[in-house]
Design brief:
10 strands, mainly beta, eight-stranded antiparallel sheet, about 10% helix, Umud Fragment, subunit A, two-stranded antiparallel sheet, about 150 residues
Length: about 150
């Protein structure tokens, strides 16, 4: 019976890759929940995050501002400081130092429509792509009308 080495299994290279990301301006997080469907599969997706930059239209990871529910959320930046957003039929201005976050699945997303603008300092970074059992999927930036750019 052939012996297998620890280095012939896919786990060590994956762990090495993830550890290397932590040394660069990148990080990872596991994504759960339906708020970004169909853009991001509901469970078991690993987001690769660029911590250096983000802009309007990007899918981002953000620290949850709700102290009763700490952790991270994954949403799309729909508006930035100075933008006027129509939310539930009312025009709202995104105030200084804030971003407006929306899930791509509006019927199942708790986002800025419920809690308002979020401090831009809570944004961890933009999602470069998703690694899942189905493979790699890069993220596209969209304008605030939902069209891909």
């Amino acid at each position: 019976m052939p012996r297998t080495s620890l280095f012939t299994t896919p786990l060590p290279p994956l762990l090495l890759f993830l550890a290397t990301l932590q040394l660069l301006p990148y990080t990872t997080t596991l994504l759960l929940g339906p708020s970004m469907l169909p853009t991001i599969p509901i469970t078991g997706s690993l987001a690769i995050i660029d911590k250096t930059k983000w802009s309007k239209g990007d899918v981002v990871i953000c620290k949850n501002a709700n102290p009763m529910n700490p952790g991270l959320v994954c949403k799309r930046i729909h508006g930035v400081e100075g933008d006027t957003i129509k939310s539930r039929g009312v025009d709202k201005k995104v105030t200084k130092g804030k971003v407006w976050l929306l899930g791509d699945n509006p019927s199942n997303s708790l986002d800025s429509r419920s809690y308002g603008g979020v401090e831009s300092g809570l944004v961890v970074g933009r999602v470069l792509g998703i690694l899942s059992l189905r493979g790699w999927k890069g993220m596209e930036r969209r304008n605030f009308d939902g069209d891909k750019r």
